[in-house]
Each structure stands twice: as C-alpha cells, then as structure tokens.
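User: I need a structural model of Carotenoid biosynthesis protein from Vulcanimicrobium alpinum for a docking pre-check later this week. Nothing fancy, just the predicted structure tokens so I can convert them on my end. Input:
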Amino acid sequence: MKTSAWSFTVLHGLALCLGLFGLLVAIPHPELWAGQPAAMAFFAFALGKTGGTGMVLGAIAMLAYGGWALGWRRTLIFFAAATIISATAELTGTKTGWPFGGYEYTEFLGAKLLGRVPFAIPLSWFYMAFASFVLADAIVTARGGTNRTLWSIVLGTWLLTAWDLVLDPSMAAPQMQYIHFWVWHEHGPYFGMPLRNLAGWFGTGLLFIAVGRLAWNERTTPLPPVAIPFAVYAINVVWSMILSISAGMWPTAIAALLLSLAPAALALRARTPRAFA
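Assistant: Understood. Predicted structure tokens for Carotenoid biosynthesis protein:
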C-alpha cells in the first residue's frame, strides 16, 4: 500500500506538470503544434484531460496513504466528510454566492455535479485537507502540550486556507489570457478575489476537518509518516506558485512560501514511528 501511495503521488505530480505545460507552453504558442497531428493530439490531451485527472490521482494517492498509515476506517470517514461537505459548499456557492462569493466554474475541469461544480473539485478538497491535517498533527504533536486534536484541526485548516492565497489568484487570474478554471462575478481587493472567499475556505475546511477527525471517536491517534502528505501538499502549492509567477503575481507566491510551505515543512522534523518506518 505504501508503494501504491507513492506511485499515485508521482502520477499526480506528473499530471499536474503536464497540465502546467499545456497552460504555459501549448496555449500561448500554437505555432509549436500547428500542422503536426501527433503534437496536436498531445497538446490537446495536456490541456483537456490533465486538470481533473490530476485531482483524481491526488485523491487516490491520499486514500492509499491513509489506508496504509492510518487505517481505512479513519481515512474513509475523513473522505466522506470532506467530499460531502465541500461539494455542498461549492454547490451552494455557485448557486447563491455564499460562502465564497459569486463565481462560476468554466468547462476546463470536466464534468460537473448538477452542471455547476466539477466532480474533481470535492476530491481536491479531500486530498489537500487530509494532507494539511496530517502535517498539522505532526507539528502539534512534536511541540507537545495539550489539546492536540483541537490545535491539529485549527492548524490543518490554516494550511488548507494558506494554499488558497496562491491557488485562487492563479486559477482565475485576469492576466491569464488563454484560460480560466473559474471566473468571479464580483471583484475583491486580493488580486480580484473577494476576501470573503478566504473566510469561506477557512469555515468550510474547519467544518469538514473537524467532522472528519472527531468522527473517528478517538482521543489519540497514531502519528504516521509525513513524506507523502508533504509531497502532495508541496506539489500543489508549488504548481500554483508557478502559475501565479507566470501571471506576474509574485506577492501571492511569496505569501504561499512564507505562510503555506514553510509551516508545512515543520512537519518533516517530526519523528517517524518505527512501526511505519
């Protein structure tokens, strides 16, 4: 199971890299594939299939990791809480503008739930939140003290929300002339994004991380290895950073580095239990 988790983590990273290639090379430079059927087919795949596929692979990677490191019961409980609650929030958001603000998904991420939210989106909430929680739990445990579960939930929510500091601006940047993953129907002060989107992220993440963890009904849990969740987390943050930098939004990349990656990396200092070595 450990090998499967690592394999899907690598495939997840490759899919995101291929999608990044499509966004930054294939679309802006159509002359590279004009008149070449093989190149055209490759670029079309990179553009049209890797976005949603990358999210599916990320979810499979974290499911495999969770099954190996924390057990299937805990993992599937967290998966159910994350996907159901996030899908509900996204469906509500695309219908009413609450809690994230007024926005609408484009067709780039594939088939949609009720025609509004791509099926892959709740999966991305799951794998990034699960990775964030595991990393947070390692950090909190290493520091010692009381209320481990509470602080792990809060810090995990912060790591998830900090990712959005670079994710949302990069995925819907007006500077990205060629494609947007979603579009905003209202303007906000944070690179065009309304600030209530961050509040919505924190609230949604806090709700399903708390439900997913507390439903385990355990006071303490094992401290699993963190290399795989850190790899998944870092891949996604760096991917968004590259996209933001390409759009000229350096401040969001710096914010992600300082408020997202740097805190998450503290988890790597936690001792790995021998049972999982």
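Before docking, keep this in mind: The first strand starts at residue 103 and ends at 105.
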